[in-house]
Amino acid sequence: MALMKTPLCEFGKPCPDFALPGVDGRVWTRDQCKGPNGLLVMFICNHCPYVKAILDILIEDCREISRHGVGCVAINPNDTERYPEDSFDNMKRIAAEKQFPFPYLLDETQEVARAFGAICTPDFFGYNAELQLQYRGRLIEGGKDPVPGARHELLEAMKQIAATGRGPEVQYPSMGCSIKWKPENA
Fold first, then answer.
1. Which InterPro entries does the protein's record reference (predicted)?
2. Single pTM value for the model
3. Which end of the chain is more exposed for a tag (fewer CB within 10 A), N or C?
């Protein structure tokens, strides 16, 4: 599993549209996921140790983010044939076990991950109410090894975006496992 770091935020870049199947049996679009004050799009998966290490924090922070009028959605971009732990059935199981407070969607064609420019799991994209990119950084200070009292950078950024429409000028890249591209998409 190659360790990747996300690039710097391209402030103002528009949020790509999508329509993807969720573990709840619905097809979700970007506009259905968006809240009145913005949208957080998260590329995650089931098997990545970086995602596993921060998942409980992410779930709790998303509950708080949604209280600020920002919709949250998680998308699994990985090749589920070569990585069966990321299968749709396993996505359903994890979402139920962890009681995800957001839709968990499968990007089977990987076209949505490409449209966003996602490179790893986890990869976070924070948009304002006009769906302009304002955050592309990590969840928490310390990454997959957060220390007690670590700053919840994604939560802070999304609260700022909800209140002002602008993300923080200083952002630190997220890091995680490379997206598991299908051979025809690699």
1. AhpC/TSA, PRX-like1, Thioredoxin-like_sf, Thioredoxin_domain
2. 0.97
3. C
Q: Which string of b and e fits 53-86 if b means at least 16 CB within 10 Å?
A: bbbebbbebbeebbebebbbbbbbbbbbeebeeb
The domains of the chain, with CATH numbers, are 3-180 (3.40.30.10)
67 is written with which tokens?
A: 């209280």
Alpha helix ranges (H) inside 43-87: 49-66
